[in-house]
Design goal:
InterPro entries: GAF-like_dom_sf (IPR029016), HTH_MetabolicPath_Reg (IPR050707), Tscrpt_reg_IclR_C (IPR014757), Tscrpt_reg_IclR_N (IPR005471), WH-like_DNA-bd_sf (IPR036388), WH_DNA-bd_sf (IPR036390). The protein has about 280 residues and is α+β, with helices and mostly antiparallel strands. Helices cover about 40% and strands about 20% of the residues. α1 (about 30-40) packs across α2, α1 packs across α3 (about 65-75) and α2 (about 50-60) crosses α3.
């Protein structure tokens, strides 16, 4: 029994350090624009319409401010209102496409992911840390694993995913302390680690071995292994994972069979990064 299991579609509040009001003292800072972008981010990866109250809670903004932002987004054709609920329109994809089309790193990494996926015959993905979550940049899918389809730009919590953990393990102690102070460690399955002490112990082990394995902590019957992508300077700029069905692939295969080709793949992807 999981008394603290988040309700379906639950989306955690956005990171406090990303709140748009923090820079309002800058005379050239456009607070209204920043708040509007923040509301867009508050939609997250949820697949169903949301109310202004839900968006205000996640964005950490007054409901009246959120409603004005939504009104503007509707006039611009970026959002639609259906009764008390709001959704983004396909027009928002233009913002994401502008990033992916202007970032050679993603397009260069995609063929490497596809080769890795073909080699291990499993689904692979490249992601980075963005705020307190991992953000998918590229993906090569063999079999759909998660109940919710994860497309480019999708987000998942860092503490219970292999990519998130391998990147959390790279943080300095002050940054890691800020992370734990800001997030709510909710259980997604009965296997999810939800105490800071246990997670810190796991991150120490990940830091030493330079890879992370997460077994059914985000979703039952899904396990994954991740390896960091490093620039020439050694900085971890992202990570690659291989995800498998737990009923089909035993844990020992993740390290015994997948780890070596994954390390070769991240070394190639790292060559695309500036030092």
């Amino acid at each position: 029994m999981l008394p603290n299991l988040p309700p379906p579609g639950y989306a955690a509040p956005l990171a406090p350090e990303d709140h748009p009001d923090q820079l309002r003292g800058d005379p050239d800072y456009m607070l209204t624009l920043a708040r509007g972008l923040h509301v867009i981010r508050a939609f997250g990866t949820r697949r169903h319409p949301q109310t202004a109250a839900e968006l205000a809670r996640r964005a950490g903004l007054p409901r009246a401010v959120v409603q004005r932002c939504l009104h503007t987004l509707i006039l611009l054709g970026i959002a639609e209102q259906h009764g008390r609920q709001y959704i983004l329109t396909p027009r928002i994809l233009g913002l994401g496409y502008a990033y992916f089309s202007s970032t050679p790193f993603v397009s260069l990494a995609q063929p490497v992911l596809e080769e890795l996926s073909a080699s291990v015959n499993e689904t692979c993905a490249l992601a980075i840390m963005e705020g307190h979550e991992m953000l998918y940049l590229a993906r090569s899918e063999v079999n759909r694993l998660l109940a919710t389809s994860m497309g480019l730009g999708s987000r998942l919590p860092a503490y219970c995913t292999s990519i998130g953990r391998v990147l959390l393990a790279q943080l300095s102690e002050p940054a890691l302390a800020r992370y734990f102070a800001a997030i709510d460690l909710q259980p997604y399955t009965e296997f999810t680690l939800t105490t800071e002490a246990r997670l810190r112990a796991e991150l120490a082990r990940i830091r030493e071995q330079d890879y992370a394995v997460v077994d059914q902590e985000l979703e039952l019957n899904v396990r994954a292994i991740s390896v960091p992508v490093r620039s020439a300077s050694g900085k971890a700029c992202g990570a690659v994972n291989v995800s498998v069905k737990a009923a089909r692939v035993p844990l020992e295969r993740l390290t015994g069979e997948f780890l070596a080709p994954m390390r070769q793949a991240v070394a190639r992807i790292g060559e695309f990064l500036a030092a």
